[in-house]
Write a structure and sequence with these properties.
This protein is α+β, with helices and mostly antiparallel strands and 386 residues long. It has 2 domains: 17-153 and 325-373, Aminopeptidase, CATH 3.40.630; 162-294, 3-Layer(aba) Sandwich (Aminopeptidase). Helix content is 29%, strand content 24%. It has helices at 25-31, 42-52, 107-123, 141-144, 165-170, 174-185, 198-211, 222-232, 278-291, 309-315, 333-342; strands at residues 17-20, 55-63, 66-76, 88-91, 100-101, 126-132, 149-160, 189-192, 236-242, 248-257, 260-268, 296-300, 321-330. Strands 1, 2, 3, 4, 5, 6, 7, 8, 9, 10, 11, 12 and 13 form a 13-stranded mixed sheet that branches. Strand 10 and strand 11 form a beta hairpin.
């Protein structure tokens, strides 16, 4: 997908700050110099933008050898707001595609880099931005708070794969251990990267979304998962749990990148729900990841980052947690206020428009646009489906 023309999203290309397109080599060159995840890759940005209906880009700024990098999906504003077509807003690509900076960057230098970011977005006709912060990467939240709001949503679960496997499994909740053993006794097995089974995962996923009455947005098409596989290649893995007669009882998609494994999507066939086959799936992936030398397995949190039954299910594999936060910024306050008024809403209370913690930006609130949902967990399974 091509970047917008200069008439809609103006690109800066001086030595200090710029907006990059995924086709530019500098995107990868910048990432090679700092910690990052799959969500920051140009191919993931292209994939995400294609399926979210926006344009992929990334902000980059450098000062005194310090770097700031922010992947973006530049989105058109809702048509009923009557805003000029050149006005846009931005969100992070779906998942934990947070702004990232080099660890140890002095706060004053990072503040300058963030100032570059806000000014570039404003000059590029972006009204606001919504970003999900990565739980496992170092986040300079005090500096972010100087340029917007940082909102804590809840904890996510992770497994420390650097421990001996006996210590890891010893930390499983008893009912998880018992359930895994029973699945094995009943003839359930696991296979990894048998991609001819992807259609079975896709069918189970749609079945699961219907069971939980998910929003239409989350009924991802078969093409979505195929494109995700094409975009990430050997960085994404499919784990399937097979019943005694070979049917796919549960399946999940997991990313593996820079010694970090993450749970992306999961589904269970309703015929096997009572047996909770995904317990075997997670156990399989934990053992597999540790054998490959990975260091961290991030299971994520509950639905909308709440401490719900899904979160408690994941805690059955580990009690270690990391906080999940979002960063919200208003780049042009006068335009933001105008859009809120056109939506027929009162201005949010508090010192800044981004003070509403439940939904951002306010001018999108009535449409409940899925890309502004705070949690990457909204497509994950509830415990009854696990």
């Amino acid at each position: 997908m091509k970047m917008a023309s200069a008439s809609s999203t103006r690109l800066f290309t001086n030595a200090t700050r710029c907006l990059l397109s995924p086709e530019e080599c500098r995107w990868r060159d910048v990432l090679a110099r700092m910690p990052h995840d799959i969500y920051h890759l140009p191919e993931y940005a292209r994939f995400s933008a294609c399926h979210e209906g926006g344009e992929p880009a990334a902000f980059f700024s450098e000062r005194d050898g310090a770097l700031l990098f922010v992947p973006l999906i530049i989105m058109p504003l809702p048509g009923d707001l009557g805003a000029p077509e050149t006005w846009r807003d931005a969100t992070s690509p779906y998942g934990y595609a947070s702004p990232i900076a080099m660890p140890g960057t002095p706060a004053d230098v990072l503040a300058q880099l963030m100032s570059d970011f806000v000014q570039t977005c404003a000059d590029s006709n972006l009204v606001s931005g919504f970003f999900r912060l990565h739980p496992t990467l170092e986040m300079p939240t005090p500096v972010f708070e100087r340029f917007g709001s940082v909102v804590f949503h809840g904890d996510t679960v992770y497994v420390d794969l650097r421990k001996p496997i006996a210590d890891i499994t010893k930390g499983y909740r008893t009912n998880h251990t018992v359930g895994i053993r029973k699945l094995v006794r009943d003839g359930f097995t696991s296979v990894i990267d048998e991609w001819h089974l992807l259609p079975a995962f896709q069918a189970a996923y749609k079945q699961t979304m219907r069971r939980v009455s998910a929003d239409t947005f989350y009924f991802f098409s078969n093409r979505y998962f195929e494109d995700l596989h094409d975009a990430l290649g050997d960085r994404i893995h499919l784990c399937c749990v097979l019943g005694a007669t070979g049917e796919v009882a549960a399946a999940g998609l997991f990313s593996e990148y820079r010694r970090l494994v993450q749970y992306l999507f999961g589904a269970s066939d309703e015929r096997f729900l009572k047996k909770a086959p995904s317990k075997l799936m997670f156990d399989t992936m934990i053992r597999w990841a540790r054998q490959r030398g990975d260091e961290l397995f991030h299971l994520g949190g509950g639905l909308r980052a709440r401490a719900d039954s899904l979160f408690l299910f994941k805690q059955g594999f580990s009690t270690l947690t990391l906080g999940y936060r979002t960063f919200r910024a208003v780049f042009d306050r006068s335009r933001y206020s105008m859009l809120v008024e056109r939506r027929g809403l009162e201005q949010p209370s508090g010192a800044a428009p981004e003070g509403n913690y439940g939904f951002f930006p306010d001018y999108r609130r009535p449409t409940a646009a899925p890309i502004r949902d705070a949690s990457p967990e909204c497509t994950r399974l509830q415990v009854s489906e696990l």
